[in-house]
Structures are given as C-alpha cells and as structure tokens.
Amino acid sequence: MVEVGKPNLADYFSILAKIDPQGIRHRLTNHFGETFELFGRLIDERLELRRLRKSRAENDVIDILLNISEETGEINRTHIEHLCLVGPLPFPPSTNSTLSHFILAIHQSMHIP
C-alpha cells in the first residue's frame, strides 16, 4: 500500500481531483477492488463450508461476523467485507484474537437495552 503514503497533488489542489494527474486514485481503486474480491472469495468459501458441514464454527473473525449476520440481520456482506478491510489496522499483532473479542463485545452490547 505504498500508494496510500504518496503525496497526491489532488489533495492540495482540489481542481486536480477529477483529473488525477498522478494516477493514484485509479491505482488505489484497482487495489481496493482486488482486496474486496479476495474478501468476497473468503466469505464465499466460508459460507460453502458452513453449508456442507451444517455447523456454525467460531474459529475466526469472518465466522463471528457471519454468525452475527445470520442471527440479527443487522450487518450484511458489504459490512463484513469492510470490517475485514479495516479491522486489523488499529490492532496489535494478536489481531485475530483482539478483533474477535472486539466484535463479540459489539455484538453483546447490541443486545443490552
């Protein structure tokens, strides 16, 4: 994600935003599109495994988010993809465990009046 750290002229001169003279916006759109496709495939694989095993395992963040989605319907596939994208960023190296606990806390707080 070197593109994110590059200075972009369009950030300083708003008239250049539509032109995208450095092509950063175009490249970032492609990178994020590929990333969302990857998350989409991971979610599809997980849904297929769930369908074949007929179980609801809670092994990782995607499973927990899919469980929340099935139970409450308050989040959908788009939400899951975006949480997978942003989830690991602010957390320390024990990301999977920390993010799982974070999501469980959010889920439980939604059910407390």
Automatic annotation (TrEMBL):
Gene Ontology terms, MF aspect: heme binding; iron ion binding; monooxygenase activity; oxidoreductase activity, acting on paired donors, with incorporation or reduction of molecular oxygen
Highest taxon, organism lineage: Eukaryota
InterPro entries (alphabetical): Cyt_P450_sf
PANTHER family xrefs: CYTOCHROME P450 FAMILY 1 (PTHR24299), CYTOCHROME P450 SUPERFAMILY PROTEIN (PTHR24299:SF59)
Protein name: Uncharacterized protein
Species name: Rhododendron simsii
